Amino acid sequence: MAKASQTSIDHKPKLPIVSSQTLGWEPILVEEFQEPPGGVELQSEADPTIVLSLTAKPNRLHQVLGDRRYTGLYRKGDIAITPAGLPSAYKSEGDDHYLFIQIPSSFLQQVAREAINIQQNQLELVPEFRVRHPQIEQILMLLRLELHQGGRIGRLYIESLANALVVQLLRNYSTAQPRVAAYEGGLGDRKLLQVTDYINDSLDQDISLADLAQLSGMSQSHFSQLFRQSMGISPHQYLLQQRIERAKQLLKQTDQSVADIALACGFNSHSHLSKQFRQFTGITPKAYRTN
Questions:
Q1: Which domains are seen in the chain, by residue range?
Q2: Where are the beta strands (DSSP E) in 38-135?
Q3: Residue 273 · residue 261 · CB < 8 Å
Q4: Distance CA 70, CA 73 (A)
Q5: pLDDT tens per residue across all 291 residues of the chain
Q6: How far is CA 79 from CA 5, 39, 138, in A?
Q7: Is 155 helix (H, G, I), strand (E, B) or coil?
Q8: Do 33 and 17 contact (CB within 8 A), yes or no?
């Protein structure tokens, strides 16, 4: 499995089914590919890449990572990791279907310093041909779901998933021996009020994790952990919760259309609000308004 934009050995490069390039995601690239049997040879990438197999039935692959070789079956959920600077090649005997993720080395280093206490000159991911890791698979599938939904939930959600993905990779597939930074005590009353006030004043905006971390004067990973300690939920979950509460108020106190309320609360459409509203309350916005 490999990014299809490189020179192909046996067939022309394929375009992704869907790509986050059109969504402006930061800080990672997420693309999904479906390809016929064949192979590709890749030059070394400046950034590490992760591939998650989505194949419906086991598929035999022949892989090369640097001076290492592997031949075996990939099943749905199997993960391959290619570190930065390592040339690779693969050949698929059957139809291949996979999710491709590229993580900027700068972001990897940032999370390593801030959340894992690894210095830049110590950091290196290890190459892996076929591994299983339920937490990483879950994060990747959530990214895939959001990719297919056009990034509707917003930047904060994507950035949170990206941070969680990198932390898991560094914990489990780094040559260093990481020590996860322990943060205790939560954000503190002043910062917590500052952050929650900012969120509630900006519900119609595409709030990012970087915005909230900068407001708090700390790293994104540090902020996420302290916020969860203080509130019991992630920043993204809190944001979604407050958007639903604002929608409830507007449904009861105004005559605005559901579509207008959706936009005022940071949802990108009537259907997006309806889906999230039903998940939180068990009923539709229209039913809530008439109750």
A1: 18-172 (2.60.120.280), 189-236 (1.10.10.60), 240-290 (1.10.10.60)
A2: 38-42, 49-53, 59-65, 68-74, 79-82, 88-92, 96-102, 128-131
A3: yes
A4: 10
A5: 544 333 334 434 468 999 999 898 888 999 999 988 888 777 777 899 999 999 878 888 999 988 889 988 888 899 999 998 888 888 998 889 999 999 998 898 888 887 766 665 667 888 999 899 999 999 999 999 999 988 888 889 999 999 999 999 988 998 775 555 555 567 877 888 789 989 989 999 989 999 999 999 888 888 988 888 888 888 999 999 999 999 999 999 999 999 999 999 999 899 999 999 998 888 999 999 987
A6: 20, 18, 12
A7: helix
A8: yes
The pairing of beta strand 49-53 with beta strand 79-82: antiparallel
pTM of this prediction? 0.73
Are the beta carbons of 73 and 28 closer than 8 angstroms?
no
Residue found by looking up tokens 């049997």 in the block: 37
- Six-digit token pair at 241? 């919760």
Q: How far apart are CA 167 and CA 136, in angstroms?
A: 10
How many residues are recorded in the chain? 291
Give residues with Cβ within 8 angstroms of 123, minimum separation 6.
108, 109, 112, 170, 174, 176
116 vs 139: CA distance, rounded Å: 18
Dmax (CA) for the chain in angstroms is 67
Helices (H), 45-154: 105-115, 134-148
Which pairs from 182-187 meet CB under 8 Å and 24+ separation? Answer: 183/222, 183/225, 183/226, 183/229, 184/229, 185/226, 185/229, 186/226, 186/227, 186/229, 186/230, 187/216, 187/223, 187/226, 187/227, 187/229, 187/230
CA distance linking residue 275 with residue 281, whole number of Å = 10
> What's the one-letter identity of residue 109?
Q
